[in-house]
Amino acid sequence: MPELDVSTTVNGRPVEMRLPTRLTLADFVRDRLGLTGTKVSCGMQVCGACTVLVDGDPVSACSYLACDVDGREVLTVEGLADGGELTPVQRAFVDCSALQCGFCTPGFVMAATALLRDEPHPTEEQIAHHLDGNLCRCTGYLPIVEAVLKASRAGGIDE
Amino acid sequence: MSELRVVGTSVPRTDAVAKVTGAAVYTVDVTMPDMLHARVLRSDRAHARIDDIDTSAALALPGVVAVVVGSDLSSLFPRFGHIVPDHAILAIDKVRYYGEPVALIVATDLMVAADALSLVDVRYTELPAVLDTDAALADDSALVHETGYSGVSATPVVVSEYSHRNVAHEVERGWGDPDGAFAEAHLVVETRTHHPMLYAYAMEPYNAVARFTDGALEVVSTAQHPFMVARDLARVFSLPLSQVRVTAPYVGGGYGSKSYTKVEPLTAVGAWATGRAVKLVLDVEESIYTTRADSADVVVRTGFAADGTILVRDFELVLDTGAYADNSPLVLDKAVNRCFGPYRIPNLRVRGKAVYTNTSPASSYRGFGAFQGNLAGETNIDQGAERLGIDAAELRRRNLLLRGERLMPGLRGMDADLVADLDLLVDELDAGPAPAGRLRGVGFGCAATDAGAVPSSTALVKMQSDGSIVVLTGSTELGQGSRTVLAQIAAEELGLDMAAVRVLQSDTATTPFERTTGASRTTTLTGLAVQRACADVLARLRTAAAEVWECPVDDVAVRDHSIVAGGRSMSYGETVRAWFGPGGGEVVGQGVVRRAGVLAELPPFWEIGMVGVALDIDPETGQIDVHQLVTVADVGRAINPVLVEGQDLGAATQGLGGALTEQLVYDGSQIVNANMVEYRIPRITDRPRTFTSIVAERGDGIGPHGAKGVGEGARNPLPGAVAAAVARALGVWPDSLPLNPEHVWRLARKGISQRSGT
Amino acid sequence: MLPPFELRRPVSLAAAVDLVATGGTPYCGGTELLAVMRLGLASPETLVDLKRVPELVGITAAHGEIRLGARVTHREAAASDAVRTHAAILAAGAGLLGNVRVRATGTLAGNVCFAEPRSDILTALLALDASVDLRSADGARSVPIEDFVEGAFTTVRADEELLEAIRVPARSGPSAYVRFAPAEHPTVTVAVVATGDGCRVVVGAVGERPELFTFPGTGDVDPTAIAERVDITEDLNGHEDYKRHLTAVFVGRALEQMGVADA
Ligand SMILES: Cc1cc2nc3c(=O)[nH]c(=O)nc-3n(C[C@H](O)[C@H](O)[C@H](O)COP(=O)(O)OP(=O)(O)OC[C@H]3O[C@@H](n4cnc5c(N)ncnc54)[C@H](O)[C@@H]3O)c2cc1C
Ligand code: FES
Ligand code: FES
Fold it and tell me: Closest ligand 1 atom, CA of C113?
């Protein structure tokens, strides 16, 4: 099975591994690095449960080659609350009860983090447009919109 | 009732931090040492005899450990099913639907297992397929199941001989003299509706991990009802229940679709065949083919008196159950019970059939049976109101059951104020004006469902020597927040902070029996069991203190969360320590809920659904924006108001999806949209522009502090409410769902031509 | 699960062209390619990753046209000042399609080469009269978008050709872009561009490929006539009569957006 050497940074930690070319980024972080916070649901780039940031950009880890992070930086949900302190986005999701089963939550948190990085004070419309590719079957979304607004008021992405 | 400290407060979910940090462990995150991975080869035809399966090429692939097919299971009980044990773990002799598991490939690596799929060679002889209920019920139709199945039904459904051999279940119910009443009615209104097949889309797909250790089977799975799964597994492997352990960690959504046994037998068979731990994770397409909601064709006729009083109702329901019964017999029972109310019906006739077809198996989905029948029933009431010239809310007020009145003989009287709930609802609805170019339509609907399922719950509360407690329950946390609510109930009972309460759930080996996590029952019934377990702990602490203090138990009391007698006082923790001495110990209390006492009558409570919508319709495109959503949660008491609101918004949003966009479409033997690209569920941009959640707290529930359940109520009347809103805006009544843009545009066009014609 | 494949990562255009000439399959964002591979509809032996080829980056505006290298993503295009100013409808389409992750990884070049019938990018590019530069080991050629796409999922690109860049004539006249997308992929897309010598109307998503209709001026555009003539493919998004009706509605709405009265 064809493989490549990959050298990347995941949540600030350097990782060097030989990986099968066919391995997805989701399977790489989940199965090889044990970072199971990233979830896979639709497998077709429409639900966003697998959202991670590569060099700051949100990508669908279910449909992204692990080898493509060679030389790049990956941020997963586990890399946010480094040292235990929740980020404002995470805090707001807790405070606004913007989750139920929680399966979509890591993806939403990552997507919202990327949004607030680019646009620290988004309107409700901007939030909806940006998160339109993240599905949640439990909450009905209103608490999620509220959480992102709250996080932006609380100072966006930084601790 | 004295003041409450924790109950009635929206304390933060106890699982929220784990879920926002990615630390929460779901079944799909579970691994076991030396674990193998499985993939399923599925049938690519709807109905065919299996002539031969050649697994040699697959077995020759390095890394493949086993390829299991149906005929390998002859030493096992090779089927499952809690009502009818008709469900082949792996197809035996023939396949009954496209997507049915035919072979299980177990390999050291998931990639190898996937690569081996194409190496298994199955030869079939095509059989005539019955792809819809009409075909299935034809006189000389092909049979989906040639034989009946023996096996004890684990649910109160009586399975017997039916009018056609493709009928999985058949029910007839009624009272009074329907034909006589129709003859006397001032107006008879007939409505026909088609409710499509739906997919629940719990975001975590079905998956499980299984292994045998020392002869005992251990399964971690996404099961809502681990105890019922354990029963199916015990039968498959002829094991005592005590040798089967099923656990459910965090579950990524259920909504009923993870009720009952799904992938657990397949996974366990993999472990049985290899002697190693095996993990099986389905993808979304496989999950769609594993369980869907029954489609329903319903014909309803209602006879009204001139003042709008309902004299008689007659329903005929036909459900498409698919190839295996799963829970569909109960779905039918519920549909039959849930379609005609919540009204006073002096004369009634309901006939229902659940029909086997060569399509994917249907089962539970949030409010099962209720939403399928409610669409027909409520549309029919709205049409009656229109033809009688009576306001639709007024017509309902005249017929809604009053407190204590019985929907059906033998069932619990109505435990809610339906008219008051309806008034709260209609007062909120915003009839207009619509934005330019849009038409505003307002609709609402009512439902009352026999919720709570069969009461059987046991909870244990373990008082530790430091005064903190562990609550053990077999009820599953699916996202609804039971872990938080049950902790609140226990904290209230024992005067503890939330931080001193830990709730552990859903492990058939260590947590006590819980029949199901469904039918909105947990807060009410499991909550009651927890409350009773707390009381039992206190009784035991009093006994312990009496022994320590060497005084009669009757002298010992519980006051301000301490154990007291005379002038003496000990905290709960001190009592444990004093009684056990330096060795340490814990005091265990047990709370039991069964069908007895206040719970002798079924259902344990009625779950009320009252929802309304105001829709803005673009008649040129058929596009619908949800301007307003209003829900009434008649919960008796909200233990955690934010969680109650979350259940209503979540349930209503699923209802909006079912009403507006969702539908599994069969074209021949296959579902053409068995993926989340083409099966469209609500997105963040579809969210209602305004949402009002009304919580009616009248303390009239049978649960802790007067609570009743919530979770399904807002789902059930939503499709009917949407249909009515569309009809009022366009002047044409829809008779099927979903009301997607093309459908709505056609209705709008029909409305225009009807109006210009008259 | 993806099938196995070799992944080559050239760092020059010449090397990329060589790899493609010897049977490699071009691969950039992978948003389409990996999806069809996962579905078992394609199993190329070798993927040639274009993401390290320096010649393929960037958006440049010069000589009255905008050049978008094959690595340009939808997000870059939507955010580019040059594109927003001189090809506003392309920026609109690129900013609306798919979702934030698809826009961050998917490229315009990949979109064009895949030739999905409901492509927003193709609708916009056809209205803008864009062309694509193709390069192979034997040489280079430029093909107008109108000729490039032959039908659903088919283009005139030879297997051994790379799409190097998309070139769009810079325009600052009135234009409009509207889409109706109640499902994942749009049901109808309409782009209207008023040029110096007429008006180009493109209707996309309803048929096998976007269709161009030209008129002497914006005032001459007849939405009903377009709706009658456009080729329709029926699918889950709608039947023929509905899609024809929507075509007329959205051509009208596009004209309205441009400020054309009596649309
Ligand atoms: C969920 C989802 C929703 C979407 N919605 C929309 C939508 O609404 N509107 C819309 O227009 N699009 C939509 N898309 C399509 C999206 O725009 C394309 O997937 C993307 O632009 C393709 O670019 P890529 O770089 O990922 O291509 P790849 O997947 O890498 O390649 C696609 C094809 O092009 C070939 N190719 C790529 N680059 C070159 C090159 N330089 N030269 C020659 N051949 C090449 C590849 O061999 C392959 O055949 C959607 C996609 C997804 C996944
Ligand atoms: S799992 Fe990747 S987008 Fe759904
Ligand atoms: S919280 Fe369950 S899917 Fe979003």
Answer: 34
By alpha-carbon position, which residue is closest to atom 18 of ligand 1? C111
Q: What is the DSSP letter of B63?
A: T
Nearest chain B residue (CA) to A138: B650
Is A133 in Cβ contact with C99 (below 8 Å)?
yes
Question: Is domain B457-599 in CATH 3.40.50.720, yes or no?
Answer: no
Q: Flag whether residue A128 sits within 8 Å of chain B, measured between CB atoms.
A: yes
C58-67 pLDDT per residue, tens: 999 999 999 9
Per-domain residue ranges for chain B? 18-129+201-290, 400-450+604-756, 457-599
Q: Is the pLDDT of residue B1 over 50?
A: no
Residue C196: other Cβ atoms inside 10 A? 6
10 Å CB burial of residue B578 (0-12, 13-18, 19+) is: middle
Mode of pairing for the β-strands spanning B292-293 and B362-363: parallel
A9 close to ligand 3 (CB < 6 Angstrom) = no
Distance separating alpha carbons of residues B378 and B369, to the nearest angstrom: 14
CA–centroid distance, residue B647 to ligand 3 (Å): 12
Is B316 a residue of the active site?
no
Q: Which residue of B has its CA nearest to C249?
A: B620
Asked whether B441 and B712 are in contact (CB, 8 A), the reply is no
Please report the pLDDT score of residue A78 as a whole number.
97
Distance from CA of A152 to the nearest CA of B (A): 17
User: Taking the complete model, does pTM exceed 0.90, yes or no?
Assistant: yes
pLDDT tens readout for residues B315-348: 999 999 999 999 999 999 999 999 998 999 999 9
- Please report the ipTM that was assigned to this predicted complex: 0.97
Atom in ligand 1 nearest the alpha carbon of residue C70? 41
The answer to whether residues B721 and B382 touch, using CB atoms and an 8 Å cutoff, is: no
Going by their DSSP bridges, the two strands B362-363 and B244-247 should be labelled as unpaired
**How many independent structural domains does chain A possess?**
2
Whether A48 and A93 map to the same domain: the answer is: no
All residues of chain B having their beta carbon less than 8 Å from the beta carbon of residue C184 are 677-678, 680
Q: Does domain B400-450+604-756 have CATH number 3.30.70.1060?
A: no
Write down the catalytic residue from B428, B492, B574, B712.
B712
**DSSP β-ladder status, B347-356 and B310-322:** parallel
